Amino acid sequence: MKFSEQWLREWVSPALATQALADQITMAGLEVDAIEPVAADFEGVVVAEVVAKAPHPDADKLNVCRVEDGSGERLPVVCGAPNVAEGQKVAFARVGAVLPGDFKIKKAKLRGVESRGMICSASELGLEEETSAGILVLPADAPVGEDFRAFMGLDDHTIEVDLTPNRGDCLSVKGLAREVGVLNRLPIEGPAIAPVAPVHNEAFPVRVEDTTGCPRYLGRLIKGVDVTAETPLWMVECLRRGGIRAIDPVVDVTNYVMLELGQPLHAFDQANLHGAVVVRQAREGERLVLLDGQEITLSDTTLVIADERGPLAIAGVMGGEHSGVGLETRDIFLEAAHFSPLAVAGQARAYGLHTDASHRFERGVDPALAREAAERATALLLEITGGAPGPLVEVVDVDHLPAERKVQLRAARLEQALGKALPVEDVGEILARLGLVVDAIAEGWATRIPSWRFDLAIEEDLIEEVARIHGYNRLPVRRPMARLGLRPDHEARTPLARLRREMVARGYFEAVTYSFVAPELQQALLPEAVSPVLANPISSDLSVMRASLFPGLVRALTHNLNRQQGRVRLFETGLVFRGELDALHQTPMLGALVCGSREPEGWASDRQTVDFFDLKGDLESLLALGGDRDAWRFEPAEHPALHPGQCARVLHRGEEAGWIGTLHPAVRARLGLKVDAILFEVRLDALTLGSVPSFAPLSRYPEVRRDLAFLVDEALPVQTLLDTLHAQAGEWLTDSRLFDVYQGQGVPEGRKSVALGLTWQHPSRTLNDDEINQLVDAIVEEAHQHLGAELRT
Q1: What average pLDDT does range 754-762 have in this prediction?
Q2: Residue 302 located in a structural domain
Q3: Which one of 177, 532, 536, 764 is most buried, counting C-beta atoms within 10 A?
Q4: At 615, is the pLDDT very low, low, confident or very high (cuts 50, 70, 90)?
Q5: CATH number of the domain that 680 lies in?
Q6: Within 13 Å and on the Cβ side, how many CA atoms surround 738?
Q7: Residue ranges for the binding site for Mg(2+)?
Q8: pTM
Q9: 711 and 568, same structural domain?
Q10: Residue 242: predicted pLDDT
Q11: Domain span at 726
Q12: Cα end-to-end distance, the chain, whole Å
């Protein structure tokens, strides 16, 4: 929030310089982001009066004015502004003045006419960023000859405060004044706000159908306003210094009161209201054109202000175009309401909006503030635009207003938390200055929380308040004492960092993608996946929690391919989310994706592209890190995102742990990819769970090797043949290795030749041929009976 230092000091003015005041606010938990002067440096500009105006004799668009600047001399000034007029009070730069940009005013002749000074526009004085169309016209009571900077109060600063979401009570000058007053033990002196007596008895009917979302709604009909009236310069300046542009007097007053008190207001053109004003939930399919010209379709979860014909505004967010105040408006209906934060939260973002009103209502607005703000706005409107006010109509449901909160603070708990015993009187005074109603009790203090402090609900909240008002820098500094025992580490567990290093060593880059993905992408890869849908997504293409690492990796692949990176090797670790919110499973996974050439481009490397077995080899290197390679198996299976002929389910100790395969051609075409991509993802808990290595004595006796070539069915997995072999090979088998797979001449159609190398070694003696031959015969017999395998000779 931005606010003017001078405006704040009208409420409370501690004897602190600007920087000291900002530091104090920051130390109280309201971080000051920036301090900027409200106007650029200039000098020699005074308030003057245009006492005469005549056309320039030699220029159609210039006028020759006589200006009284308080010096007793009427100075000739040539001015080209279209809005200059006799009798105006203006900002006048005398000869010798220096304007922003080091622009010096000198005597000059324009088309033969002497000009001794310059009548300035707002942009020339650095008060507006855009070039002004005309001169800056000052109020009629501006004193001629007074220094313009002093008259406008331009020796001021705009202070920008970055508030945390729980401190919505400080989103106003009044709220910040409360904080500064508490910190400096000073009373705050705001404007006197008295009820405005109605001039007529006409009241516009109001009906609140959703009292949960809007427990308090006030409205007042003000007839005969002059919308063409000019907003006072002092109010325009307050708005400018608060970061808001002046529009028209009605809108300016509502914005001013919002900055001053923190209560958003809205004014409707009474001529465009039909029947009663109704606060209700939108009906599915209703449409609304907003003040910014955007047309939206409302959802049935949106709280709206409507009349008998349809929606007029999104409650607490933005009004509609057709019911807003315009130049033809004569009667207005002024609205001041309390909307529940839950009713407004997320509504602005759902429609791509963010307004000052929604920013405040989402964080919580004082439910007791609406009447005060309505009376303040009414008084200002009558002063500026005139008009006849009617009675203030209020619809309130006390049961749905925030209930009064009572919180106890124990003296012993406060001392324990702060490490310091504070005098009882000081604590009571701090709580009272914060606006709490305090009663002393035996244990400490019983308090009632003021309506504007939504963030105070438990004892710890009060401890924090006492600490920050007392001063964090005044609390004792103590080193924490704790027993720090060593955490046990499972010897069989493979650290995640080691898995990462292995992937990097094999040429992969680690990717970090969003946990949110586009629903269309997830649907293409995982059509049956169920994962939570975000109510308020960052964007439409990040609206679903990922059920797999595949969508993020594929999106990263597309990003790289679009930037002419043909060889992509990525891996990622992170959570995947499966199931609805009430039964959500969050599983840590490790995934990888490769495409392009097998080796980096170079004179000594070939141009072969990666295939399924390249990625499978990389995955097997990870599996081997755990020292329990035999616990892992690959079996053919089908996955909706993977090629049915190049896909395998990864099993760990008989349970599914992941998938590996080539991206399905149909999915690839749907995603617009022109290259093959091979992916895998495996559960991290299975990857990191290994076995503790143990020493086995080395045998001094020779190894015996036999090579066997089997003719088997081409669809038979080699692993099945290996399982049969291991079951019959005996306890002295030390190694089995697949070294050849062949199909072609000499091998019947539908069959393949699988060649295996088997190695035996006894720990304490030399194995003889008879023993080995018996084991080989058993292997051949078992493979023939159960797998239909034939020994190839």
Answers
A1: 94
A2: yes
A3: 177
A4: very high
A5: 3.30.930.10
A6: 13
A7: 455, 461, 464-465
A8: 0.68
A9: no
A10: 92
A11: 704-791
A12: 87
